[in-house]
Structure formats: structure tokens, C-alpha cells
Write a structure and sequence with these properties.
- The protein is α/β, with parallel strands linked by helices.
- It is built from 14 helices and eleven strands.
- Strands 4-3-5-6 form a four-stranded parallel sheet.
Length: 353
């Protein structure tokens, strides 16, 4: 499978990824190599990496706790201190082996430790493979608020190997599948229909490269998210607010990222019918396809105002205005759309029907 070349690095797949890592390590004089895992990938994925690269057994392993709840500055402190205590210098390398929490947090740690050391991402979840593999976004959450602290910085390379997906449960696969469906909705109607016809999210694994290529095509045109790259946020304005609310509320079960984004995409598809002339039958198609894979989540009516208040923290906002990415049709997105408050309430009703 051919590598995908971004402006700054390559995304390698399968056997070529392993060879690229071996070649890079042999040709680069790193003073020390560190590998960042969480407690799950340390158990299930690190042994596979060592099997490919036996010398990885001698790399210093730093471990954080798994899950979005641990994607915060406190975990960064632990990793920074671990790097410092183990003698990391500006010629060290950090290999981030894990899902989006590990690659986002690890990339941020590497970008800021001693004003920046180099890093490599090896995503181990479907979500990280199709979403965090391109674009250079790094960072952590601020309390329950998603990705409020971070920088855009690129890895040396990204390595995608599907063997790691065998460690995921079906819910995690569904979470990643949501981002793939989004790629089709914003950029490629034929891809959306291809994914919509799949029986299970597990069948989407064969399409990982196409999702990475679609995202890379957008990012290359707008690396710092001034304009076009904003279309990648479809479903994320309301989705992130919902994810943050469920993460921070003691009486609600935490949602995985993709689960929250699915809700956001259904809500924002409804908004698009009112503001961007998205045909209603297409909004209903989006809703029906998504709900065929993702159980409807009960969002108590009394929780809606708090979710809406969280929208003010969305990173696309400017001059106090909450701006949405919406669809003009399946396969074509537009951005910087203001949404009246009364339509937000109606979108929740549409999802709850």
C-alpha cells in the first residue's frame, strides 16, 4: 500500500511502515528513544512493536492512564518529568504508541519539552488512524473542554498497521467509523454511500487509506485551519459540546468521541436544511444511516441549555460568534455559518424524534 505524502512527512502503511521505522532509526542519531503508551497499549501493542523492532525493548517506556479523562496537563507533567528524569535532551525521540489521547498528548509533550523534540506517531485505534494521523494537531483538554491547549506541529512520520485494531472492542471501532463517515459527508458523496452500505464498522478497515487521503487533501490546502480545513469540523461544534457535557456530568455515561460526533452530525444536518438548503431527504438519510450503527442517546431536555452554553468554547469561534460547519449537500460542506438559538433547540428535537 503506497504511502501518503503530506507537506511535512509521510504516512506509511503495514509492512512499509515497519521498514520505514527501521530505516529512520538506523539513519538518525537520536541520543535517546522514548515510547509513550497508555496502560492498555503497553500491554497489547508494545509487544508487537518490539517484535518488529527488537531494539525497542531497550527504549524507555513512559506510561499514562488510558482514556479521555486523563488527557490533561497533569498527564503532561508526568511525561515531561519522566523525560527529564530519564535524561531526555533535544536530540531525543518520542514514539507515541496509542490512540488519539496518546498521539495528541504525546505530540504536545514532544513539541514543548525543551522547546521541542522530534516525535513519531503510531496510532493504534481506528479513530486515531483516520483522524489524528494527518494535520499535526496536538494538545490536551482543559477540564471537560476539548483540546483547549495545544499546538500544530508535525511528526517525523506516521505508521498505520491494522494489526493493532484487533485489540479494540466494537464500540471503539464504531467511534473511529464515525470520522470516516464524516469524511464522505463533507468531501466525497460516493465514499459516503460506500461506507453507508457496509454491514458493520469493522468492514470499514479496508477504507482507512482513503479517509487519510481525503483528510490530507483538505489539510494540504489549509494547514493552519484559516478556511477550508474548517470543513473537517462538521458535527464537531455540537458534538464536542455534547462530549464535554457528558464527560463532566456525574449522572451521565461518558461518550466516546465518535459517539458524540454522530449526534453532532445529525443535529448539524438538520441545521443545514434550514440554513444551507441541504435537502431534507439527505438529512434524513444521514440520520437513518447513523442511527443504524449508533444507538440513540437520551439527552435530557433540561441538559440542553448547558450544552449550548459550552458552544462558546469552540475553537472556530471568532468575535464572540459561534460558527458552524454545515452541509450544502452530501459531499459538499461550507463553513463559518451562524446558527440562531431557536434552531439549536429544534435540532435537538429532530434528533430525539
Amino acid at each position: 500500500m503506497n504511502a501518503i505524502q503530506t507537506d511535512s512527512h509521510a504516512v506509511f502503511f503495514e509492512d512499509a511502515a515497519i521498514e520505514a521505522l527501521r530505516d529512520h532509526i538506523s539513519k538518525t542519531s537520536y541520543s535517546r528513544i522514548f515510547v509513550l503508551t497508555d496502560n492498555n497499549t503497553a500491554q497489547h501493542c508494545l509487544p508487537e512493536l518490539i517484535r518488529w523492532i527488537p531494539e525497542a525493548a531497550s527504549w524507555t517506556c513512559l506510561e499514562i492512564k488510558a482514556g479521555e479523562a486523563h488527557k490533561h496537563i497533569g498527564s503532561c507533567m508526568e511525561v515531561w518529568e519522566g523525560l527529564s528524569a530519564s535524561g531526555a535532551d533535544r536530540h531525543s525521540l518520542l514514539v507515541n504508541l496509542g490512540g488519539g489521547v496518546v498521539t495528541d498528548l504525546g505530540g504536545f509533550v514532544a513539541s514543548t519539552y525543551q522547546r521541542g523534540i522530534r516525535f513519531i506517531n503510531i496510532p493504534t485505534s481506528l479513530l486515531a488512524m483516520v483522524d489524528a494521523s494527518v494535520g499535526g494537531k496536538t494538545g490536551v483538554d482543559l477540564g471537560p473542554l476539548k483540546n483547549q491547549v495545544g499546538v500544530i506541529n508535525q511528526p517525523e512520520m506516521v505508521l498505520i498497521c491494522k494489526v493493532f485494531l484487533k485489540t479494540l472492542d466494537p464500540r471503539e471501532l464504531r467511534s473511529g467509523f464515525a470520522e470516516m463517515l464524516k469524511h464522505g459527508l463533507i468531501r466525497d458523496a460516493d465514499y459516503w454511500r460506500q461506507l453507508a452500505a457496509l454491514e458493520t464498522p469493522a468492514d470499514a478497515v479496508a477504507h482507512i487509506r482513503h479517509s487519510v487521503a481525503l483528510k490530507n487533501e483538505v489539510v494540504q490546502q489549509d494547514p493552519t485551519e484559516k478556511n477550508l480545513r474548517k470543513i473537517l469540523n462538521f458535527g464537531h461544534t455540537l458534538g464536542h459540546a455534547i462530549e464535554s457535557h457528558f464527560l463532566g456530568h456525574p449522572d451521565l455515561e461518558t461518550l466516546l468521541h465518535g459517539e458524540a460526533i454522530v449526534i453532532g452530525m445529525i443535529l448539524e444536518a438538520f441545521l443545514a436544511t434550514r440554513l444551507c438548503d441541504l435537502p431534507e431527504h439527505q438529512a434524513n438519510e444521514i440520520r437513518d444511516v447513523l442511527l443504524s450503527h449508533y444507538p440513540r442517546v437520551d439527552i435530557p431536555r433540561e441538559h440542553r441549555p448547558e450544552i449550548v452554553r459550552l458552544l462558546i468554547h469552540d475553537k472556530k469561534n471568532t468575535h464572540g460568534k459561534v460558527l458552524f460547519t454545515l452541509l450544502e449537500q452530501i459531499g459538499k460542506a461550507t463553513y463559518n455559518q451562524e446558527v440562531p438559538a431557536d434552531l439549536l433547540e429544534a435540532s435537538f428535537d429532530y434528533y430525539a424524534e
